[in-house]
């Protein structure tokens, strides 16, 4: 994995660009200091209710953030293709 850029907001969330196995990920992100269970729950709810580019908006410690998520058709109906926080 090769990282190209990085940004963060008050040690709450970060965004990254990277290449993995010759595939370039233009935008991705992560939360800082939260549990994997919280992240999974937040991204699941946002993906089910507010799928799209920065559609799911929320605040952590008074800082506005959003989740971008996209779904795609798959053999079991609808599958999550990506979900990440946006700063």
Automatic annotation (TrEMBL):
The family classification in the record reads: Belongs to the ENDOU family.
Tell me the ranges covered by the EndoU domain, including all copies. 1-87
Classify the source by domain of life: Eukaryota
Subunit info here reads: Monomer.
For this protein, the record's Pfam families field holds:
XendoU
Record's protein name? EndoU domain-containing protein
Q: Which cofactor does it need?
A: Mn(2+)
Q: What SUPFAM superfamilies does this protein map onto? A: EndoU-like (SSF142877)
- From the UniProt record, which GO molecular function terms apply? hydrolase activity; lyase activity; metal ion binding; RNA binding; RNA endonuclease activity
What UniProt keywords are attached to this protein's entry? Endonuclease, Hydrolase, Lyase, Manganese, Metal-binding, Nuclease, RNA-binding
């Amino acid at each position: 994995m090769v990282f190209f850029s990085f940004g963060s907001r008050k040690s709450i969330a970060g965004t990254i660009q990277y290449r993995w196995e010759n595939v370039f990920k233009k935008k991705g992100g992560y939360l800082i200091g939260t549990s994997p269970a919280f992240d999974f729950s937040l991204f699941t709810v946002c993906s089910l209710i507010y799928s799209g580019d920065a559609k799911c908006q929320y605040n952590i410690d008074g800082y506005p953030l959003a989740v971008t998520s996209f779904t795609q058709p798959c053999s079991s109906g609808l599958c999550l293709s990506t979900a990440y926080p946006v700063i």
